Each structure stands twice: as C-alpha cells, then as structure tokens.
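Researcher: Please predict.
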Amino acid sequence: MSIVLELRSIRSLLTVRQTATFMGTCMVTVRRYAASGKLVSVRMGNRLRFDPAVVAAFIESRVSGS
C-alpha cells in the first residue's frame, strides 16, 4: 500500500512524529513546515496535530513538483 493511500485510510489526527515518519523527514522539519504555513496543522493545547488527508496532499504536491 502506498503511503498516500495509507494516510487516506487513517481516521485520527497524526502527531508530529507520525507525520515526520510518513514524510520521511525529521520532526523539526515538520514543525518548520507547520510554522511557515506550508503544512496545515491543528494546535491542541501546546501540541501540533495533522490531518492525514492534508499530509497526503502535501506529499503528493511535493512528489509531482507542484
């Protein structure tokens, strides 16, 4: 199963660590993308969470070069 398909099947928000794993990057990079607005996040208290569909779309846009 591709990463994008796997992400689209997840029904709960992802942590920074989970998002970094799916994206193949480090947690610092995920936080930077969120801080810059490149990757939409949800703040729950002092923690960031990510919608799996948004992460999948982000990955697809990076792969396609858009």
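Model: The first strand starts at residue 42 and ends at 44.
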